[in-house]
Amino acid sequence: MRRKLGLGADGTASPLGLIIKIVVLGLVAAIAVWAAFPLIGTGNWLGLAVLLLVTAVIFSIYLSPRAIPAKYLIPGTLFLIVFQVLPVLFTLSTAFTNFGDAHRGSKDEAVAAVEGSSVQQVPGSTVYTLTIATDGEPGSGDIVFLLTDPATKAAFVGTADGLEPLNDATQNTDGKITEAGGYEILDIAEVSARSADIVEFSVPTDRGAIKNQGLSRAFEGTPQQAYDAGCDCVKDRTTGQTWTANDDDGLFVDGQGQALAQGWQVNVGFRNFAEVLTNPVIRASFLKILLWNLGFAFGVVLITFALGLLVALVLNKPGLRGQRLYRSLIILPYAMPAVAMMLVWRDMFNTDFGLINRLFGLDVNWFGSAPSSMFAILLVQLWLGYNYMFLVSTGALQAIPADLTEAAQVDGARPFHAFRTITFPLLLVALAPLLISSFAFNFNNFTAIYLVSEGAPFPPDNPQAGATDILITYTYRLAFGGAGAQYGFAAAISVFIFLIVATISIVSFRRTHALEEIN
Amino acid sequence: MHRARALVAITALLLAGCQAGAGAGATEKPSLLIWTGGGPGGEATQALGAIFARENGVDVNVQIIPEDLQTQFVTASQAGRAPDVVMGAHDWIGNLVQNATIDPLQMTDDTKAGYQDLAIKAVTFNGQVYGMPYTMNNIVLFRNTALVPDAPRSMEELVQKGTQLKSSGKAQEILALPVGPTGDPYHINPLFTSGGGYIFGTRDTGDFDPADLGVAKPGATAAYAKIRALGEGGAGVLKRSITTDNILSLFSGGKAPFMISGPWQLPQLQQTGVKYDISPVPPFEGGQPARPFITVDAAYVASRGDNKALAQEFVTNFWSRPDTGTALYTATSSVPALKEALATVRAGDPLVGKVSDAGVEFGQIMPSIPAMAVVWDPLGKAEAAVVGGADPASTISAAASAIQAQIK
Amino acid sequence: MAATDTLPATTGDETVVRLGGAQGGWFRQVGWRHLVGLLALAFSLFPILFVVSAAVNPLGTLSSSELVPTGASFENFRKLFVDTAFPTWFLNSMVIGLLAAALSMFVSACAAFAFSRYRFRGRRAGLLGILLVQMFPQFLLIVALYIMFAYVSDLWPAVGFNTRTGLLLLYLGGALGTNTWLMKGFFDTIPKDLDESAKVDGATHAQVFFGLILPLVTPILAVTGLLGFISAVNEFLIASVFLTDDDAKTAAVGLYGLVSEERNNNFGVFAAGALVLAVPTVALFQFLQRYIVGGLTAGAVKG
């Protein structure tokens, strides 16, 4: 007999279970309806389709007699897709563009910005005292500027057609027009409501146009540079200089190869990836940095796990007096803001004034030589990270049935032997994925390097590759240390780094048999 | 004083809170959204925003962005969620303009005339004024007057006095000048320029020229030879162990008779009780003038804000008022950019006047072209290496080629 | 006490006892554990002393050359609570931290149950996938999240920028991750015979999960809950982009706002705030430990 979709289809029979299910599915439906209105309102049909699909999937999963694992996986998976997978995909897509500072928007936006930022006051022109008004209703009438020449107190009205004298205007002592027949003077709230229209509005004149600057002043200005669609270029009105659009780079470039500041985003294909592979700076130091990066990530996992596990084992004796307090205070470093604590540590390693040198009577320039700088970084990470390992080890130790070790002891196994052969392998099965993920985290642990050594020491002849740089700090310097952030390039680098980490992680899974164990 | 400021800040908070509650639904009061960085300047901006709100019957929401305001502002502009006004240092202008995120301001000659020349020059980019300056800063020499009554006229004199004090046990260090493990080109700039170096040359228009990189010129090597002589292998005046984090405790604790830093240290110093005075950073004997960088904080109108007319009103008419300038001085101890505000401040606080005088006489504007972003990191590392004893010529030329490779 | 003393513990402590060749001696029994515990405490707490020192030092600098503060006062704490919106920030942090911890623990436990108890297509790929997705360098994702939430904020302001709900949803994106693996490993240690026999007795999958499995895994729930709480309370990068309204900020964002300017004198206030913020974490862990030492071990002791 095949059961159909239904609230009790998967065997939910208790009244409480049914009620909970009804409430939860009702909530899902309510949220879907709530989310649908703005989508309909803005005509976002694709979004609406996705919303309907997701809702339908949720309902069918929870009403179906089968797909039991999906019932447990769907909430987490939804969040994972929306907040982790989608951003990764977006980032990947930028790797094929020149997205970055000066290349964020479209060509139209760049043109508007070039023209807008070249507007200059017409030489010798008047700066008017302004009152913003409308011809007709404040909410809907055409915008007009009521203008006074501060020198002569002559009044004008500026419309989209041009400037005309205004005769029946009342002015206050500053010359600002407070009343004019036929026009509605806007108060500050009305001006704000019409903000978008006012930005669009200008009064054309022979030499340019009158624009407002704030609420009470207007000037006659003209753009010095204008885009010409015929030559696909930008021309300067006074000097005649031209900058031609280069759609490969997303820039307006003049004859000497000088570009205007504002560019736009274009697709560059695999150029960013090729750049990563052929960049001489990257190639020169890549291997050395990768080696230390691996050493750093493995080293941190090893020492934090070793110390964390040791302390967890030692304190894992039932009935140990003060056990709770020990545990709570040992995790305190984990509860402190890591950024601030790294700065505290950096200061402790200071050559002349740092506590470590003074305490041990040393004169070590910790960040002056590669080995000492590496040591300092590892010690800081040990302090920041062993608490986490302590915590998860403490939790995992509770899962190891005491009768296993008991049995081993009855067999005459020595306790350390029992630990090594029984407890530790069991722990490792439970914790191997955590260790691998800790490795992956530390492989890209930007702040651990940047806030402690910044990659120092640097060889005097190469300010770009420090002895304690890891790939992410090193490439960060390349992608963001230039004249503006290059997100496309950084995304391409990220892809390579991801491939390295993922490969190592998968190999480690194979090695630790963690994947085999999950069957 | 503190209490008054706290009160103003709390009032601003309350206002912001009411607005958040009332924002939805009801016919909206016009509102202005301002982004600013943290610290005392951010708190003062909140208080001033409340004043503008009251005077104009609008809502002003001043949000403090603690992390990387410049990048966040650019990202928000791109995503269509820009604030109306953003506060930031003048050296952001190049990047903000290339991302089409801020509008030029049309400043009347009268308004311009009210400002210090350097302040207007700093916010001018490609011939346009982009920001309304409010405070400016430059570094100066602080000296402990109990140990050194008279200001040294040259670096050599400073070193000599400091060495005497050190050998007689009255001080442990000669000069608290931040270098740090990766260098600090901002703080070393007076010595760098006095030794004959410069970073970027200027075009006839006054704009910085990225093609004229002074770091690659012989003057830079000569300057760093002098800096090396002061370093760890030489006189021991400059040390990588001295950082922005410990200069204040070195100086205020009497361990170092001299400190090179800016007016932002003044509120702290006054609490410590150490006796001190301010003078310009001295040059090398027979060298060029020692030029500190001038940095200017300015208010910018966002290109993609929702309420541009109100934003322009706030920036051009409110933010340029003398009382606004003095309020910001009170919070930050920085030099007001407005002449009238500076005159008021100088009368009550001669130290800020001395900072300003040093800046006016010797200062040079910190370059705001995007290429400047490339310079800091390589040049700083070269500085740290040379202070540690590396060869100036090869180190500086490595830095110069790294910089040139990235300017393109 | 006697029972626990003779209990064959799960650890290697007997090594020492046997090596010593005798059953006696307080030190050999537990004393050395206190020694290790105290050493670990010293290592953990020592750098925090600087934070304490900065918090009570009216001259707010970060400098380890001044371990002994030049003065001692609660001025920084007073400023923290009176001059800043810290009470609001703190409250936001607690609400977001507790909710994020509880919800992500639940979501994660559900997934771990499916991975541990069921065999289905895509299971291995799914398990591997949730780890691999987090190996993508995170520092670029902020821009993508921002652009995404700009859309969300326009459509649904209730879960957009400056809302607790929105940030909470964002944090749940990380619910499937290493914690799922940790829980799954723990679930695997519970014999399947238990749920098989329950099912024979007519229990549904939901009854097995909520009634049988979850009570048995409280230690790991407590651990993941605490981990979730700490990471949500200390999370800064995403929150600083997401929360710009002063009233919506979490304590981590608000506190960094005090020291974000390089030239500042607020480090003392920041230090005071960091210490206050650590208190709930320690308190929560104190509270949760009863569940950590409960669970399976408790059962074993009784057996």
From TrEMBL, chain A:
<keyword id="KW-1003">Cell membrane</keyword>
<feature type="transmembrane region" description="Helical">
    <location>
        <begin position="487"/>
        <end position="509"/>
    </location>
</feature>
<dbReference type="InterPro" id="IPR000515">
    <property type="entry name" value="MetI-like"/>
</dbReference>
<feature type="transmembrane region" description="Helical">
    <location>
        <begin position="12"/>
        <end position="37"/>
    </location>
</feature>
<comment type="similarity">
    <text>Belongs to the binding-protein-dependent transport system permease family. MalFG subfamily.</text>
</comment>
<dbReference type="InterPro" id="IPR035906">
    <property type="entry name" value="MetI-like_sf"/>
</dbReference>
<keyword id="KW-1133">Transmembrane helix</keyword>
<dbReference type="GO" id="GO:0015423">
    <property type="term" value="F:ABC-type maltose transporter activity"/>
</dbReference>
<protein>
    <recommendedName>
        <fullName>Maltose/maltodextrin transport system permease protein</fullName>
    </recommendedName>
</protein>
<feature type="transmembrane region" description="Helical">
    <location>
        <begin position="289"/>
        <end position="313"/>
    </location>
</feature>
<dbReference type="Pfam" id="PF00528">
    <property type="entry name" value="BPD_transp_1"/>
</dbReference>
<dbReference type="InterPro" id="IPR032550">
    <property type="entry name" value="TM_PBP2_N"/>
</dbReference>
<dbReference type="InterPro" id="IPR035277">
    <property type="entry name" value="MalF_N"/>
</dbReference>
<comment type="function">
    <text>Part of the ABC transporter complex MalEFGK involved in maltose/maltodextrin import. Probably responsible for the translocation of the substrate across the membrane.</text>
</comment>
<feature type="transmembrane region" description="Helical">
    <location>
        <begin position="72"/>
        <end position="96"/>
    </location>
</feature>
From TrEMBL, chain B:
<feature type="signal peptide">
    <location>
        <begin position="1"/>
        <end position="22"/>
    </location>
</feature>
<dbReference type="Pfam" id="PF13416">
    <property type="entry name" value="SBP_bac_8"/>
</dbReference>
<dbReference type="InterPro" id="IPR006059">
    <property type="entry name" value="SBP"/>
</dbReference>
<comment type="similarity">
    <text>Belongs to the bacterial solute-binding protein 1 family.</text>
</comment>
<protein>
    <submittedName>
        <fullName>Carbohydrate ABC transporter substrate-binding protein, CUT1 family</fullName>
    </submittedName>
</protein>
<keyword id="KW-0813">Transport</keyword>
<keyword id="KW-0762">Sugar transport</keyword>
<dbReference type="GO" id="GO:0015144">
    <property type="term" value="F:carbohydrate transmembrane transporter activity"/>
</dbReference>
<dbReference type="GO" id="GO:1901982">
    <property type="term" value="F:maltose binding"/>
</dbReference>
<keyword id="KW-0732">Signal</keyword>
<dbReference type="GO" id="GO:0042956">
    <property type="term" value="P:maltodextrin transmembrane transport"/>
</dbReference>
<dbReference type="GO" id="GO:0015768">
    <property type="term" value="P:maltose transport"/>
</dbReference>
<dbReference type="GO" id="GO:0055052">
    <property type="term" value="C:ATP-binding cassette (ABC) transporter complex, substrate-binding subunit-containing"/>
</dbReference>
<dbReference type="InterPro" id="IPR006060">
    <property type="entry name" value="Maltose/Cyclodextrin-bd"/>
</dbReference>
TrEMBL record, chain C:
<feature type="transmembrane region" description="Helical">
    <location>
        <begin position="127"/>
        <end position="148"/>
    </location>
</feature>
<keyword id="KW-0813">Transport</keyword>
<keyword id="KW-0812">Transmembrane</keyword>
<comment type="similarity">
    <text>Belongs to the binding-protein-dependent transport system permease family. MalFG subfamily.</text>
</comment>
<protein>
    <submittedName>
        <fullName>Carbohydrate ABC transporter membrane protein 2, CUT1 family</fullName>
    </submittedName>
</protein>
<dbReference type="GO" id="GO:0005886">
    <property type="term" value="C:plasma membrane"/>
</dbReference>
<dbReference type="InterPro" id="IPR000515">
    <property type="entry name" value="MetI-like"/>
</dbReference>
<dbReference type="InterPro" id="IPR050901">
    <property type="entry name" value="BP-dep_ABC_trans_perm"/>
</dbReference>
<dbReference type="GO" id="GO:0042956">
    <property type="term" value="P:maltodextrin transmembrane transport"/>
</dbReference>
<dbReference type="InterPro" id="IPR035906">
    <property type="entry name" value="MetI-like_sf"/>
</dbReference>
<feature type="transmembrane region" description="Helical">
    <location>
        <begin position="267"/>
        <end position="288"/>
    </location>
</feature>
<dbReference type="Pfam" id="PF00528">
    <property type="entry name" value="BPD_transp_1"/>
</dbReference>
<keyword id="KW-1133">Transmembrane helix</keyword>
<feature type="domain" description="ABC transmembrane type-1">
    <location>
        <begin position="90"/>
        <end position="288"/>
    </location>
</feature>
<keyword id="KW-0762">Sugar transport</keyword>
